[in-house]
């Protein structure tokens, strides 16, 4: 397992390259020979954790982990646990504990159902394959538009950007992803806050303003709802020694209210 910083500063995709090992990076599992093309919607790099697997390890657990699918679901609790593990590794923990915790995270991530669609009532319901593909593409376009606009667009504007009506987009996004657009947008903002905290930011009021929350109390409410923790608690969890903090200059535009 290693932590790195991607210096890619382009919004368009790179020319294809090819994976050389079994790797899990940013909730994407790749095999040797897989084609890779990278892009950052906001035009800047990111910090990532990458885990490489020995072939014999995969041979022993391939059926259990279901590694035929490459894109894996990443919920907020797993994301926070991963960040806390990285922070603990920065502070210094023994290798046994790191490996044990990492396996626990991988089990949670790699055994989560992924080829399914959520119904309006929260139940998982099957759909015609062509409809499912169309809905996923619409949801993907909405994700890209939200990232490109840095959360600053309203629902009507977002729907216009992806060629849909607000009602249809809202309904399809929930069916395709299992969450509302509002919940997804909040997750984007909370993860941006987590990244800043992990990079050494400490002023919660500044972070709330930077990421479009009405005030620090609004950030607190959303983070408590998303993670079940207060921002001050999360800040302590992700704190790293001063000498290991990453100083990152992020270019962010104005963000809209929830």
UniProtKB/TrEMBL annotation:
Keywords on record: DNA-binding, Transcription, Transcription regulation
Superkingdom assignment: Bacteria
Pfam families: HTH_18
Domain HTH araC/xylS-type, residue spans: 136-237
Gene3D superfamilies: Homeodomain-like
PANTHER family (alphabetical): HTH-TYPE TRANSCRIPTIONAL ACTIVATOR RHAS-RELATED
Protein's recorded name: AraC family transcriptional regulator
Organism: Phytohabitans aurantiacus
Lineage of the species this protein comes from: Bacteria, Bacillati, Actinomycetota, Actinomycetes, Micromonosporales
């Amino acid at each position: 397992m290693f932590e790195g910083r991607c210096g890619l500063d382009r919004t368009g995709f790179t020319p294809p390259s090819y994976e050389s090992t079994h790797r899990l990076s940013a909730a994407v599992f790749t095999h040797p020979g897989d084609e890779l093309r990278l892009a950052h919607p906001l035009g800047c790099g990111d910090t990532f954790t990458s885990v490489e697997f020995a072939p014999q390890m995969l041979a022993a657990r391939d059926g259990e982990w279901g590694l035929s699918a490459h894109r894996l679901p990443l919920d907020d609790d797993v994301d926070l646990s991963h960040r806390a593990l990285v922070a603990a590794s920065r502070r210094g923990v023994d290798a046994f504990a790191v490996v044990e915790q990492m396996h626990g995270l991988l089990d949670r991530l790699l055994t989560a159902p992924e080829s399914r669609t959520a119904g309006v009532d929260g139940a998982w319901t099957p759909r015609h394959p062509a409809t499912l593909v169309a809905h996923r593409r619409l949801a993907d376009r909405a994700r890209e538009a939200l990232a490109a606009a840095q959360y600053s667009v309203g629902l009507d504007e977002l729907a216009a950007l992806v060629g849909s009506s607000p009602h249809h987009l809202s309904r399809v996004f929930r069916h395709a992803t299992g969450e509302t657009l509002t919940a997804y947008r909040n997750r984007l903002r909370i993860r941006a806050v987590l990244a800043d905290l992990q990079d050494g930011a400490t002023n919660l009021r500044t972070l709330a303003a930077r990421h479009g929350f009405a005030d620090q109390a609004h950030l607190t409410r959303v983070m408590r709802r998303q993670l079940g923790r207060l921002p001050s608690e999360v800040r302590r969890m992700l704190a790293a020694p001063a000498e290991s903090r990453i100083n990152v200059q992020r270019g962010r535009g104005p963000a809209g209210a929830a």
